[in-house]
C-alpha cells in the first residue's frame, strides 16, 4: 500500500496527516515542537510520534512507516543544510523537507499563481508566478518579520514609552498599555529584556482591538505595518496578478486594512498548511508515479 | 582629611577619580564592569578595586576609604531598588548612587540649564530646566534607545535584507552590508539571533561613513534617527532654551546632521561623566558642609 504523509511542524508543535494516493486523509496525529534550527533530533522524535499516531488513527501498524512518501513543511527548512540532514534521519521511503511557507502556499492557493502572506508571531511572503515560487521576508523578529505580531507588539511598547516620556501624544491604547505594566516604565524594561517574539506578540491583538474604536496610536501602528506589507506585496507580484491570501492569526485582522487594489484580489484560503503538505505530497509522489507508471 | 570620590561605571568598565574638597583630582583608578542590574555584588567589587587604585595613586592607604564621600554614576541606578541597595553595601562614609545620565549632565554642562544626549550603544536624554532634572528615553535596545548605535545598526541589517528581497531599492551601503555577510541572508539571521546591542552597534559607524558619500540608504537611516532625536529634544526643552551637548561615540557624528534650530545651541561638553561625578560630589558634600560649617 502506497501511503502519503503531510507534516506541518514548527516551534509550537507538529501535526501529521496520513493520506492515500489521491490525497484523501485517512489518519491524523500531533505532537510537540519540531524546530530543526535548534534541535534536529528532538524534531525527528516529534515528527515520528505524530506519524505513528496518524498510522494508528488509520488502523495501520507502525512498521508501515517505511512505505510512506512524506512532505514535511518545517520552519527553518531553508537555513543551512537542515533539510537534507533531516531527510536522511527519517525512516520513510521518501521524504522532502520544505519550508513552512511553501506548504502554506499549497494549502491556501493550491497550484495557482498568487501570493500568500503568513501573518502570525512572525511574517513571511510566498508567491508563485508562472510556476516559479519565491519567498521573501521571514528573516526573524530582530531584523525582519515586518507586520508580524511580534513586531507590532514591540512597536506598541516603544510607543507606550514615548507617550510616557511625553515625546509622542498619548492615546487610550498607550494608557492601557502602561496600565498593564502598573504605569511603571521599568516594568516594561524588565519584560523586554527577556522577551522573545512570542512574548511581544501577545500585545498585537490589543492594537487591532483599539483600532476598531479609532484609537489614534492603534491606527498609526497598523497603518505603518500595512505599508510594509504592501511594499512587499508590490515587490513580489503586481496587484492585478493572482489571488492573495492573508493567513496566520493576524491575517484576517489585516485583510480589511489593506488598500483597495490589494483588497480586490483577496481570497479565503482553500485549506491550511497541513493540507498543503498533503497536496504537495500528491503532486511530488503520486502524480510523478502515475506519469511513470 | 575629607575625600571626595567620583565613579563612572557601566557594563564595560568602571573608572574612579579621587578629589579634594575643591574637586581637584588627586588620584585615578579603573577596573571591570559595574552593572548593578545584573550583578550588584560584582559591581561592588569592581567599584572598590577602582577606588583602592585611586587611593594608591594619591599615595593614600586603603583604610582611607571610610572617610570618602562618593557620587557613583551607574547604568541601571534608576531601576528598582538598585541604588539604595548598593549604597548600603559600600564602606564609604557617604555614598549617593545616581544614573549614568545624571553624571554625564553634570560633566557636560555643569549646573547650567540645558540638555545632554548620550548617543552610544544606547541613547538617553537628560535635561535641566530651572534646576529640575528630567531623564527620558534610555529604556533599552529592544523598546527604546532611539538613535542609538544599536538601533542604527539593527536598522541597517533590516534594510539590507529588504534590499536583498527586492522590497526596497539597493545602495552601495546595502550591498556592502550584504557582502559583509557573504551575500547570504541566512548569515544575518544567524548573527541577529544571538546579537545584543553591542553587536548591532558595531554596524552604526558604517552608516555615517557611507552618508559622507551621499549613500541614499545611509542618509535615510540617519534622517529617521535624527527625527527621533529631535522629537525627544522638542519634548524635553524648547530649542531656544539652554545649551545642548551630544556626547557618546555617535554624538559628534550626529551633531552636524541636526536641523539648524538645534545646531544653533550645540556646545562642546565641558568635561566627561567621571568629572561630572566629582562635580556632583563637590555640590552634594563639600558645599553642603561649607553651608553648615
Automatic annotation (TrEMBL), chains A, B:
Pfam families: BcrAD_BadFG (PF01869). Residues 5-249 form the ATPase BadF/BadG/BcrA/BcrD type domain. One of its GO terms (molecular function) is kinase activity. It comes from the Bacteria. Keywords: Kinase, Transferase. CDD domains: ASKHA_NBD_GspK-like. This is N-acetylglucosamine kinase.
